[in-house]
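Dear colleague,

Thank you for sharing your sequence with our group. We've completed the structure prediction you requested, and as agreed, I am returning the results in plain text so they can be pasted directly into your records. Please verify that the sequence below matches your submission; if there's any discrepancy, let me know and we will rerun it promptly.
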Amino acid sequence: MANLSPLQKLRYEYQPKLPTVLKGDVKNITVELGSPTESIANQAEVKDLFKKTYGLPVAKFVEGTNENAGKVINVGVILSGGQAPGGHNVIAGIYDGVKNGNKDSKVFGFKGGPAGIMNGNLVEITPEFMDEYRNTGGFDMIGSGRDKLESTEQFEMAKATCEKNNITSVIIIGGDDSNTNGAVLAEYFAANNAGITVVGCPKTIDGDLKNEHIETSFGFDTACKTYSELIGNIQRDANSAKKYWHFIKLMGRSASHIGLECALQTQPNICIISEEIEAKAQTLDSVVDDIVDVVVKRSQNGDNFGVALIPEGLIEFIPEMNVLISELNNLLAIEAESFAKAVGFDEQVKWIISKTTKAASDVFASLPKGIQAQLLMDRDPHGNVQVSRIETEKLLIEMVDKKLNDLKAAGKFSGSFNGLNHFFGYEGRCAFPSNFDADYCYSLGYTAFLLMNQGLTGYISNVKNLDKPATEWVAGGVPLTMMMNMEQRHGHLKPVIKKALVELDGAPFKEFKANRDEWAVNTSYLFPGAIQYYGPSEVCDLTTRTLALEKK
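Please find the predicted structure tokens below.
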């Protein structure tokens, strides 16, 4: 542990808090099973695809006799998808649980994500190795990856790796797509009597892996606090210089949970919520008009500055853009070879316009060349446009500036507008986990161990009652199939875990909506400051405004 910062040294010593039921001896923790469950939609289709793991009951851990407590098991852990603060503590919770069950049990880390289990690239996690990463950010302990586990060949490769190393349980730490892969792998192993259980853990800073049983995904708390500190800093600067409008794009590929949470923490002048844009069927032009209206009103008060939060996935929620992107995703998946023959950007544009519907081609033709190029970049592993590479914030600044110049020429605007763009994404994914995420992740990992200790497969670890002190948290597991529906991927219908979007009738959005008009015109900025790890509990153990409002 050489070359450590003072904070690193102290964080290694932090002991994460656990729910009371998980504090006891493993032999005194048993599982309580509920009634059979169904998928949230497309029940017949999902059931047909998951014949062995569909309809499992919700699990809850309680005090009782655990006959499997001392069983020797070998566990393989996968970090899958984008990084999120707290991933190392999930592994720590798994490791400590496994060793508490039986000191001869082993934990292996598959290196580089799902590719590790397919290629047999793994490392045994020793006490010394584990201790280097407790309470730290990042996924650098074993690395992550975005490889898919979806073909029979890949399943067999994973099975062979597990059999070679006597691994009887696999834990996938990931988001909705990663846990969908986990559900499919669990089904394959069950259908082929492999004797290998698969359990997931809910990871994503985006906050879109949630439901009545999973109150939040890990990493969301830390990421939002990190972004909110930066937003607060920029707001203080904007109010000091009084000459710039800052357009800040925030990570969150689909849902606007991060934008909404950061708005509740910092009270910016503008925060666009993609789900509201979609519900109102707003055009790109009308979104720009709304921003222009706020800029003009603030200017009339002598305030030619402000802060606007833009969700990363906004462009997909604007109806005409959604139509275009959906057509592009399907077109470039189905006719990839034909598109590859179009040499040069101009030829690619002509090809797109000739292949899409008139509505979609008209929208595409109207966009700046830079945005067109970004829409034609390589797709992500799921066949979707990489929205993080689309500079929506720059597009909005350009369009707002043009409209304001038109208003100035018409004598309807006498202020000034100087737009600056920012993108806060990677800054929040590997931050030191907050106390909440350090505790929550450790509990999720320990719970994942208990699920596999009980021989349960096709589950995702869950911890509830998160607005209360950790001693009152409730640990258990949710069947992965319960969270599924059928969606279009790569031009075909596939079973996937449904993303949880911002609910416009939910308490967090209602709180934001009740205050945003005042925040728009007045300078009502809040400054959360840096994440605090030591000090009063009301500061250090504070959870998100989203969770507090949802549980109120």
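Summary note from our side: Residues 220-241 form the longest helix (22 residues).

Kind regards,
the structure core
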